[in-house]
Design a protein that fits this description.
Keywords: Phosphoprotein, Receptor. This is Chemotaxis regulator-transmits chemoreceptor signals to flagelllar motor components cheY. The protein has a single domain, classed as Rossmann fold. The chain is built from five helices and five strands. The longest helix has 13 residues. The protein is globular.
Length: 127
């Protein structure tokens, strides 16, 4: 008997319900169990109870933006574990560098499709 394989988990953090829906469909097809959060504060509360393996993170959100969330996540116990992919419309090199310096593992431009997201997850070492 083999022990049950633990499901891989992904948290999608975006204030757009449509973006969350599109991203959910993509990562579920890659075999992840998906949860969603509408802003960074909601995501931080989620991570305090169950740290996901992967986080798809929007930059511009109400309540708490993605960069603030990422810095707080990385300072929590176990917060260095999740692979974080920033998914955003930010294109400036300085902004991308800021996200990576704050602890993002990869960077995905919106709009993205399944092929782009899967390749970025592969680069981050999770698919």
């Amino acid at each position: 008997m083999h022990p049950p394989v633990e499901a891989r988990t992904c948290l999608i953090v975006d204030d757009s319900r449509i973006i969350r829906k599109v991203a959910r469909r993509i990562v579920e097809e890659l075999g992840f169990e998906v949860d969603e959060a509408g802003d960074g504060a909601e995501a931080l509360a989620y991570c305090a109870t169950a740290m996901p393996e992967v986080i798809l993170l929007d930059w511009n959100m109400p309540v708490m933006d993605g960069l603030t969330f990422l810095r707080r996540l990385r300072s929590q116990p176990g917060g260095d574990q999740p692979k974080v992919l920033f998914c955003t419309i930010e294109t400036e090199v300085d902004r991308i560098k800021e996200a990576l310096d704050a602890g993002a593992d990869e960077y995905v431009m919106k709009p993205f499709d399944g092929e782009i997201l899967e390749s970025k997850l592969a680069e981050a070492g999770v698919v």
